[in-house]
Amino acid sequence: MESSSQSVFVLSLVQVPKANCTEEELGQFPYRLLDWFLLLSRMGESYAPAALPQSCLSHTQRTQLAQKRFALLDKNKDGKLSRRDLKKLHYKRMPLEHCATQFFQSCDRNRNRKVTLQEWTDCLVDRSEAWFYHFMSMRMGSHKLCPTIKENYL
Questions:
Q1: What is the mean pLDDT of residues 109-128?
Q2: What is the C-alpha to C-alpha distance for residues 81 and 120, in angstroms, rounded to an integer?
Q3: If pLDDT is split at 50, 70 and 90, which confidence band does 152 have?
Q4: Which domains are assigned to the chain?
Q5: Region 15-19 average pLDDT
Q6: Is 110 helix (H, G, I), strand (E, B) or coil?
Q7: How many C-beta atoms lie closer than 10 Å to residue 124's C-beta?
Q8: Contact 105/26 with Cβ under 8 angstroms?
Q9: Dihedral of CA 47/50/51/53: which sign?
Q10: Residue 28: is its pLDDT beyond 80?
Q11: How far is CA 108 from CA 37, 122, 128, in A?
Q12: How far apart are CA 26 and CA 19, in angstroms?
């Protein structure tokens, strides 16, 4: 019995190599991140079975969601997200977290190691929508973000 508990202890010390972020995963990351933000924004609200999924949100609604999350993450209120601000995101608990650093670096267009609100919303919202349109048209045969009820029952 002792040897099995020792084996478990030894196994827990083994480092698992970090997965590389593929181009496809990096493309999908902003959509999944916005989905996570949507879930977080709905936590604590009363349950609404008719709550729209992200795919049905308008560009304006996605932008507002990204802006609200930016304001929450920008702890020193300087209008920029630094690495320190982004660490508070706890993205290690998210799916595809191995793409987070690469994604945030790609949002920093001027390479000053800070992401402005404009960089954040352009990167997060525009890339999320671009990925989803591509995914729906290439994989699902439709480019519509939110099918109508009629389409769901055909």
A1: 94
A2: 9
A3: very low
A4: 21-41+56-127 (1.10.238.10)
A5: 51
A6: coil
A7: 27
A8: no
A9: positive
A10: yes
A11: 20, 11, 16
A12: 12
